[in-house]
Design a protein that fits this description.
Blueprint lengths: L12 H12 L11 H6 L6 H14 L5 H8 L6 H5 L6 H15 L4 H13 L3 H13 L1 H4 L4 H11 L16 E5 L4 H5 L2 H11 L3 E5 L8 H5 L3 H17 L2 H4 L2 E3 L3 H8 L1 H4 L4 H11 L2 E2 L1 H4 L12 E5 L2 H6 L7 H6 L3 E4 L13 H4 L1 H16 L5 E4 L2 H7 L7 E2 L1 H8 L23
Parallel strand pairs: 1-2, 1-3, 3-4, 5-6, 5-7, 7-8
């Protein structure tokens, strides 16, 4: 593509990166088949190729974008399936991130949207506030879940989160230290995931050490276009890692939510315009590890040999570019693992997307569950808290993090979502 950025604009390293990626795009359209919103809506403006045209025009012209442009860019999930499919190597993430920051700076949204986005950025990033909100949603569920619009969507999302109790001790064997980032939403909704991961990794010679003062990774703020807030969150985490001993003390850094992990890996790009922080972010990002790479496969005999449909979050396969997702470790632990048809398509969670775009997110959830149910699983496993909570519900099989299943197979407690559950394999088909 030809571009028309002025030399003065390209002084900004973020825009320089945008321009480089725009020039790489040949408008072949291969990306459209991998885009969930294009597959659903069939509108060129709701696919990567159409959005790239709108983003280029908006960023070159500067100033306030049109409402039409904002609508179609807001519908992007940032699943990055298009980046994986692109034969020209276009980093779509760089384009959409710069565009969201531009919209946040130059476009005045309706008051209701501004309040909602501010609430997401300031409440969901604080575990105590998230726990309080979930408690209220459960308490007033008969009324709150029937509210129209976004309020009802938020109430239903919060109310279906299972009550959690952290079960089982974390064993310390004096092994190699791995810094653990507890995160924010997962810490509030499912603290047992980190405890299960700690027990699994302890059996493999790793000690998870919670990184004090780290807080939220900043992914929610970043995808809302709130770049200054995202940088503040990132600086807090990098500084906490350094204070705790950094690379000299830790063999790696782990967060058990892949959505957060993909954002952490992008920290160096976030600081493209701050060389000192970019260098520090690069040292931090070099230590990142995913649970699936640390949980070395180990033979076990699970209490139940369940059939597991493995949902690979977009952040794992398109963000971190990891394909396994725990499949090998789950199979070694004695489970039957099956792949979900259309596994490359997003489930609709995408951070705060399910709150901001409930209709599209709901349609994608239905599609994902229909595909998952087609392989008749006992359980759906997913390594991202957003996917787990979004897909959960009375119409879905139990949703469990791979760490909980592996831990259970190796002698840990039964996952919360499986307690008292009747599995598909327990139900005998009717024979006439």
């Amino acid at each position: 593509m030809r571009t028309n950025f002025s030399p003065a604009m390209l002084v900004d390293p973020h825009l320089a990166g945008v321009e480089k990626n725009l020039r790489a795009c040949v408008h072949c359209g291969i990306c459209t088949a991998t885009c969930p919103t294009y597959v659903l809506l069939g509108d060129e403006r709701d696919g990567p190729r159409g959005r790239i045209v709108m983003m280029q025009r908006m960023l070159e012209e500067g100033g306030a974008p049109s409402a039409e442009t904002v609508t179609h860019l807001d519908r992007c999930l940032s699943c990055l399936g298009c980046r994986t499919a692109c034969p020209s190597g276009v980093d779509y993430a760089q384009l959409i991130d710069a565009s969201r920051a531009h919209i946040e700076q130059h476009y005045k949204r309706p008051l209701r949207e501004r309040i909602l986005r501010s609430a997401i950025a300031n409440l969901l990033t604080r575990p105590a506030m998230t726990k309080f909100a979930v408690g209220l949603a459960r308490l007033f569920a008969p009324i709150a879940t029937r509210l129209p619009g976004t309020l009802g969507t938020m109430a239903r999302t919060a109310a279906k989160a299972l009550p959690r109790k952290s079960k089982g001790a974390i064993a310390s064997l004096g092994g190699a230290r791995v810094a653990l980032l507890p995160g924010c939403v997962q810490q509030a909704l499912a603290p047992e995931i980190d405890r299960a991961a700690a027990r699994v990794l302890a059996r493999r010679g790793f000690d998870l050490v919670a990184l004090k003062g780290a807080g939220c990774c900043g992914a929610l703020a970043h995808h809302l276009g709130r770049k200054p807030d995202a940088k503040d969150f990132a600086k807090r985490i990098v500084a906490a890692f350094e204070r705790a001993g950094g690379s000299d003390r830790f063999e790696g850094v782990l967060i058990t939510a892949t959505g957060c992990g993909a954002h952490l890996a992008d920290y160096p790009r976030l600081f493209a315009d701050e060389p000192d922080w970019r260098t520090r972010a690069e040292r931090f990002a070099a230590k990142l590890r995913d649970f699936s790479t640390l949980a070395v496969p180990r033979a076990a005999a699970p209490p139940r040999k369940l059939r597991i449909a493995l949902h690979k979050p977009c952040s794992l396969q398109h963000g971190l570019k990891l394909e396994d997702g725990g499949a090998i470790a789950l199979e070694a632990a004695g489970f039957e693992v099956v792949q979900i048809p259309e596994g490359h398509l997003c489930c609709g969670s995408a951070g705060s997307y399910s709150i901001l775009q409930p209709e599209i997110a709901g349609a994608l959830r239905t599609r994902k569950l229909d595909n998952a149910k087609s392989v008749r699983p006992d359980v759906i496993a997913a390594a991202n808290i957003g996917c787990l909570n979004h897909l959960a519900g009375p119409d879905a099989p139990p949703l469990v993090h791979p760490a909980e299943l592996i831990d259970w197979a190796e002698g840990g407690p039964v996952p919360v979502a499986l307690e008292g559950h009747t599995f598909v394999t327990d139900v005998k088909p009717n024979r006439k």
